[in-house]
Amino acid sequence: MEHQAIEDQLHGSSTWMKRFERYLPELVYGSIDGIVTTFAVVAGSAGAELSISVVLILGLANLIADGLSMSIGSYLSKKSEQDNYKKHLKIEAWEIENLPDAERKEIEDIFREKGFDGKELEMVVNRITSNKKVWLDTMMKDELGLTLESKSPFKAGLSTLVSFVIAGAIPLIVYILSYSGNTSLDPFILSSVVTALAFVLIGYIKTYVTQAGLIRSIAETLLLGAAAAAAAYFLGDYLRGIIT
Amino acid sequence: MEHQAIEDQLHGSSTWMKRFERYLPELVYGSIDGIVTTFAVVAGSAGAELSISVVLILGLANLIADGLSMSIGSYLSKKSEQDNYKKHLKIEAWEIENLPDAERKEIEDIFREKGFDGKELEMVVNRITSNKKVWLDTMMKDELGLTLESKSPFKAGLSTLVSFVIAGAIPLIVYILSYSGNTSLDPFILSSVVTALAFVLIGYIKTYVTQAGLIRSIAETLLLGAAAAAAAYFLGDYLRGIIT
């Protein structure tokens, strides 16, 4: 904890910001999933010329149902990752207590691989195995390739839910206004414009997660949304012709 | 490659199986996302008493659109992870060439943290920094905590697409049969039963990914699907009352 505070001081970023940034991937990917899924309902309905009430009913139902399932799924997968890490940590700790010779041999193999030999190898192995915490840590990282992400499964799930529902509501807002009679413009065209702007914004925020270039990130996100919406629109249009 | 073959021999698993297993997380999570999203359309439509043709049009449109977006998203996120790894690898390699003293100091810090000191510390640092590959590898793993997943972004995306579309089609099959007049039973009840069975099967396969217990994995997956469907059903039912 104290070390974290010093790190924050050095990086000029508050603890609050750090905490927020930790869940940025969930926020970004949750937003993309949410906005794509409701815009697919909007575009499919527009292609099939379904009524505004169908768009609203299925758009909202899909938003809540998918939002719940994505966030519960995000919680469960983070939870199982952590459970899996803890399970292997327990096994390795048990092995160090009960089969120290075999585990010592594994440390020897790891450092032989790194180019150590003879007296040097013996010394490194002695030093590593003299501290059980370091020993265990080396087994987890170098033997099993496992590291523990310090993310709360609950907060990861909550971040997914909130971003999914907020971003997913964007394509529907125009339809809600249109349904209330507050606009006379074509709701599909208006919704497409608003949704495209939201995709640009999400693509921009995504650069903080992927560290990709700005133009590339925006183009990728926008194209992804457009491809999904076009597929839904043309499929809706095609099915309208064959399904009465 | 040869080492991999020996590993496969020891673990009694063919190279083909190994390759397949590598994409099992994508296959499992793609299946869950696909089946949840189409079953949400089915349940929401049932709650709102919409026609079978609406279920088919929006179910299929959603299946293709969401399937595309999830798989492109999976491809892009794997790709950006690898790009990010390569970027940091390049930076570290450049630093080792051009700022060897600073990078040597970092290796020193890493091993001091592990309990090395004095002559021992000097020896370990000398050994690690004598081989640039080991030096670079240590920086990536111990300083940055980065490891490279040997997954092809393209295959990860393709696995997501195939599993999403196949599993997502399950709740709709009954509606297609029902639409063709091949069954007289209530399509929503039939679809719920078939979908529940599919959730049990996916929960079972999921144990290979999460290594959780069988009962827990099946119960979790089934409850997730049921929660999402119930939310969609009751929201559809509620909105039918207020949206004419």
TrEMBL record, chains A, B:
Gene Ontology BP, a term: intracellular manganese ion homeostasis
Sorted UniProt keywords: Membrane, Transmembrane, Transmembrane helix
Its membrane topology: Multi-pass membrane protein
Keyword Transmembrane helix: yes
GO molecular function: manganese ion transmembrane transporter activity
Location within or outside the cell: Endomembrane system
A GO-annotated cellular component: endomembrane system
Name of the protein this chain belongs to: Iron transporter
Annotated source species: Pseudochryseolinea flava
Top-level taxonomy: Bacteria, Pseudomonadati, Bacteroidota, Cytophagia, Cytophagales
